[in-house]
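Predict structure. Chain length: 374.
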Amino acid sequence: MKTTNRRSQLAMKAETNLLMTTLFLLLIAIALHSNARAQRVVGGVYEVCIGTRDAATLIAYWERFGYRVGEQGALDAEQARKLYGVASAVRSIRLHHQDADHGLIRLMVWERPTGEGLGLIGMKTLGNRWGAMLTADIYNVLNHAEEAAARGLPILYVEPQRAEIYRVEQRPRPFLDDLPCVREMLLIQPLTRQVLFQRFGYTLPLYGKINEAAPFRTSQITHFGMVVQTRPDTLDFYDKVLGLLRVRDQVRSSADDPSARRIFDLSPGESYVTTDFDDPRSAKDDPQRMRSGRLKIINFAPHVRLEDRRAESRPGSLGYSLYTLRVNDIEAYHRRLRSSAATEVTEITLNEFGERSFSFVAPDGYFWTLIEQR
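Prediction complete.
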């Protein structure tokens, strides 16, 4: 009888220990999950910021692409210096696109701009920034580009080129099978740098939402581009430090690719590799679950000669000059950036819209601002 009772006591003790261990592991998992969530980038690349002297003209322009005016605010010269390193007052207007939580536009009206920005310079430039957007009517955009050129307006464009982003192993039968491809065109004007693309033969439900009421029937900006010329491991900053999801890596394009050749003005023998970083909620291996808000980095081979215009694509400059990300725990990110290879890390302060923010320069030389999600 005593033996039976002792066995029962031992069994109860073992069960209690197992329960306590399970509870302990559960608490650790919850803490780790909460910490990861607190430090997660929210919604992919949030905004492209466009320096300008005339907000009204740009507002009218972007309304044609489905954007609308949202928050407005301002900083005096000292506040702007602390956050952007620019000793000039600035007034900003945020443009929203339907219900998108990424791909927004911020117009920054500088009292004293630091420079004219990238202007009409082509895509094969160190410091180049641009935004891509989905359209359901790419030839309507082309019609306007051709008319602008005919009138002598400052514009650089490349007519729609066919590209196969998701190449199928077995070639489709013309007119009998679907042909998954895109038509993509380049559209550069003094203050805007756009790639517009139209899909054929496939859909990606989470990658761009078209505003059918907009004259150009376009989505929010689906991905934001940058041109670099650096070691591949420099780009580890974007997933290992910022927490974006690396979905494609070192995908090579060359002058043999008609679309890459035309849009990036590639000469024979020139090439680049593409690395894509997505919203952390996206999917790496399932295109149907991929979300827009992508950061697309074009890394040119070392032998390709690039003009360095990074100083003209940072705050204070006109045109495309800044990207922003939203984060859940800005203090955690501030500590992380302080101990990383980033430079020019500012203190946390309020931006034009009263949002806690700080700025930094990434290891590839591009200026960024992080915003705390409220």
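Summary: The chain has seven helices and 18 strands.
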